[in-house]
């Protein structure tokens, strides 16, 4: 049976016996990229659940994700996406739970649960995904002709972020060019390049700012003195120091990323 047929059938059923209704404790879920999320629809079970009278469908964009008919799960459908699981052990409590593990950008969208049990009803749930721009790569190039500096920051995340450039209190964003592309696993790959005339020791910062929340991650770039051959030892020293700082930053970012996600999850719980 196609989705529209099931839908028409169940909806007319709903009009006939409209005492039955499906409810959702939460209509909007926000999940961190790579985390797990469980979306919930609930329905009245009465005294004791009669599996033979129960039908549960979940669909998204016209595709079935779950088909649970009279106590039987259609595993052909579930096996087509191994990251999805219908947690049937909560059905007796009147809860149909759809779990997505290792959330990806492709999971973003509107989900519908359609439940028949005596009567029939459905609800929509939307899922958004957030992948922080936690690792920022940067590069400095000097134009040999004009001596202008070209500073580039690149990172991947989701959704699309705005790149802001600062040097001290000065906002240099309008002088930068930005390139968006779709990178690995549908994440946005953002490359922003700033061209400036500058001198040694000037400090630049690039910020990747989330549009909806204003949260940002940033990288700091210090213009090094142009190295002469006599400064090679010093350069090695700074190279080593740089590497130590770099790995320290990576550790910090990993830590922060985890914490941000945990904070998000915590906030989610509080709001709901
Ligand atoms: C997500 O769920 C899977 C399978 O249940 C589990 O192995 C994994 O540790 C979970 N990941 C997180 C981030 O909770
Ligand atoms: C991101 O974009 C930059 C510039 O367009 C490109 O050099 C880089 O390979 C891309 N990275 C990924 C992971 O796609
Ligand atoms: C750098 O300075 C030169 C000469 O003063 C000027 O022509 C050029 O536009 C400057 N470049 C930038 C990016 O400001
Ligand atoms: C980046 O975030 C910090 C801390 O939340 C905030 O103080 C700062 O104003 C933000 N910067 C930009 C450019 O958005």
TrEMBL record:
InterPro entries: CD80_C2-set (IPR013162), Ig-like_dom (IPR007110), Ig-like_dom_sf (IPR036179), Ig-like_fold (IPR013783), Ig_sub (IPR003599), T-cell_Activation_Regulation (IPR051713)
SMART domains per UniProt: IG (SM00409)
Compartment(s): Cell membrane
GO MF terms held by the record: receptor ligand activity; transcription coactivator activity
GO biological process terms, semicolon-separated: cell surface receptor signaling pathway; cellular response to lipopolysaccharide; immune response; negative regulation of activated T cell proliferation; negative regulation of CD4-positive, alpha-beta T cell proliferation; negative regulation of CD8-positive, alpha-beta T cell activation; negative regulation of interleukin-10 production; negative regulation of T cell mediated immune response to tumor cell
Keywords: Cell membrane, Disulfide bond, Glycoprotein, Immunoglobulin domain, Membrane, Receptor, Signal, Transmembrane, Transmembrane helix
Gene Ontology cellular component annotations, sorted alphabetically: actin cytoskeleton; early endosome membrane; external side of plasma membrane; extracellular exosome; nucleoplasm; recycling endosome membrane
Protein name: CD274 molecule
Organism: Vombatus ursinus
Lineage: Eukaryota, Metazoa, Chordata, Craniata, Vertebrata
Name of the coding gene: CD274
């Amino acid at each position: 049976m196609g989705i529209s047929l099931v839908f028409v059938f169940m909806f007319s059923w709903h009009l006939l016996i409209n005492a039955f209704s499906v409810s959702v404790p939460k209509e909007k879920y926000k999940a961190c990229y790579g985390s797990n999320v469980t979306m919930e629809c609930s329905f009245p079970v009465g005294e004791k659940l009669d599996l033979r009278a129960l039908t549960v469908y979940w669909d998204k964009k016209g595709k079935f994700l779950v088909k649970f008919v009279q106590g039987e799960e259609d595993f052909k459908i579930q096996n087509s996406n191994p990251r999805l699981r219908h947690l049937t052990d909560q059905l007796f409590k009147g809860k149909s739970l759809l779990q997505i593990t290792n959330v990806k950008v492709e999971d973003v969208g509107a989900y519908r649960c359609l439940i028949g049990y005596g009567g029939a009803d459905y609800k929509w749930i939307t899922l958004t995904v957030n992948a922080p721009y936690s690792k920022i790569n940067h590069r400095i190039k000097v134009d040999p002709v004009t001596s202008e500096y070209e500073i580039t920051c690149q990172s991947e995340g989701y959704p699309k972020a705005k790149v802001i450039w600062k040097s001290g209190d000065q906002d240099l964003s309008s002088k930068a060019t930005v390139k968006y592309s779709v990178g690995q696993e549908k994440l946005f790959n953002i490359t922003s390049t700033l061209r400036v005339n500058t001198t040694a020791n000037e400090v630049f910062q690039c910020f990747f700012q989330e549009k909806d929340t204003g949260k940002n991650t940033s990288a700091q770039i210090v213009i090094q003195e142009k190295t002469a051959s006599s400064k090679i030892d010093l350069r090695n020293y700074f190279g080593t120091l740089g590497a130590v700082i770099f790995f320290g930053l990576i550790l910090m970012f990993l830590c922060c990323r985890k914490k941000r996600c945990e904070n998000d999850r915590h906030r989610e719980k509080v709001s709901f």
